[in-house]
Amino acid sequence: MHDESLLLPPETQPELPDGKPVVLIVDDTPDNLALLSDTLQAAGYAVLVALDGQSALQRLARITPDAVLLDALMPGMDGFETCLHIKADPRNRHLPVIFMTALTDSEHVVQGFRVGGIDYVTKPVKPNEVSARIAAHVQRSRLQRQADMVLEIGMRAALIAAASGEIQWQSDLARQRLARYAAGDAHGVANADRADRADDMDGVGGVDGAIGARGVTGDTPCLPGPPSDSGSRLPAVLAQWLTRWIEAGCDLQTAFETAAGGVRRVARVLGRATRGDWVILLEEFDDAAHTTALAAQFGLTAREAEVLLWLSRGKTNRDIGDILGMAPRTVNKHLEHVFGKLHVETRAAAAAIAAKASTRY
C-alpha cells in the first residue's frame, strides 16, 4: 500500500485534505485493501482503511468519511453487524455504505440493504465499477446533507461556501444581503468591542474577538450568481475574512462585522456543511430603527430606548456604558426611568418585554 499512514491505529486522528472526498475501506484481506486503496487514490479520493469491524467503528468515532466500502464476510464482527452499528449513530444517517461480497444469493443481498447498506459490488471487485459507484453515492449523499441543512436553516439569510470562497448554495435572502457587501459598502471597521455588540437573540453565540475588515484590500468583487450556480463566489471582503477565519483555527465564536448607513452587518460560520464547505449566516441589524420603535411603543426617550435595546441583548451596565459612551451610573439612572415606564422592577422583566415587543430590524 502506498500510504502506510492509512494503517495507523484506529484511535489516531489522521490528517485528511479538505478538498478530497474520503472513503473508508473495511476488509480483512490486505491485498484487497491495497488494490482498492490504489484505485481510489488514483481517482482523487483520500482513503482510510480498517482490517475489521471494530477498527472501522473506532475510525468512525473520530471522523466521518463520505462513503464506506465494507466487506460483508469478516471474522468476528461481520460486515452486516458492523453496518448496524454504523447506522445506529445519527451522524451516519446519510453515510453511504457499499457492501463487497462474493455472495450473490438474494438473501444476503437483501440482508445488506436491511442493515442500512445502499449498494453492493461482487468479488472479485472491478476497480472501475467500484469508483463509479462510489462517485455516484458520494455526490447523492452530499446533496442530501446539504438539502437537510437548508431545511433546518429555513428562510434565514444563509449560504454554503467552500474554503476557496465558491458558493455551493445560497438562500434568496442571503443573495440580497451579499449584493450589499459586493456593492462596495462593506468596508467598515470591526474589532473586538464592536463584535461584542453583535450578540443578538438568535442564540448563535457571542462573537468576541471578531476578525473584521480592518486592513483588508482587494479588487471590487462581482455580484454572486443565482443559487447553486457553480462559479459564483463570496464578495472579496467576505472571502478574505473566511480565509483568515480558517487560518485562525475555525473559531466558531469569531465573526465579521461592518457598519454602513446605520446598519450593522454580521457574518458568522454556523458549522460545516460537508468537508471543506461551511454554512455562513448573514445578519443585519438596524439599531436606529429598533431604538425608534422601542421609544415609540413604550414612551421612552431616545437614550432610554438605546439602554433598553442593549439590556435586551444581555449587556451589563458597564457594557452598555462602553457601547453608548456614558458612565455606568448614568445607565442606571436611565434604567430606573425605563423600569417605571414599563411597570417592572427587574432587569430580566424589562429585557423580556423588550424582546417580546421587538422585531428584527
TrEMBL record:
Q: Which domain of life is it from?
A: Bacteria
Matching entries from Pfam families are given as:
GerE, Response_reg
Instruction: Write out the coiled-coil annotation as residue ranges.
Output: none
Q: Which UniProt keywords apply?
A: DNA-binding, Phosphoprotein, Transcription, Transcription regulation, Two-component regulatory system
**Which organism's genome codes for this protein?**
Paraburkholderia phenazinium
Segments forming domain HTH luxR-type: 293-358
Recorded GO molecular functions are: phosphorelay response regulator activity; transcription cis-regulatory region binding
Matching entries from PANTHER family are given as:
REGULATOR OF RPOS, TWO-COMPONENT RESPONSE REGULATOR ORR33
Q: Which Gene3D superfamilies match?
A: 3.40.50.2300, Winged helix-like DNA-binding domain superfamily/Winged helix DNA-binding domain
Name of the protein this chain belongs to: Two component transcriptional regulator, LuxR family
- InterPro entries reported in the protein's UniProt record: CheY-like_superfamily, Sig_transdc_resp-reg_C-effctor, Sig_transdc_resp-reg_receiver, Tscrpt_reg_LuxR_C, WalR-like, WH-like_DNA-bd_sf
Q: Which residues carry this modification: 4-aspartylphosphate?
A: D71
Query: What are the BP-aspect GO terms?
Result: regulation of DNA-templated transcription
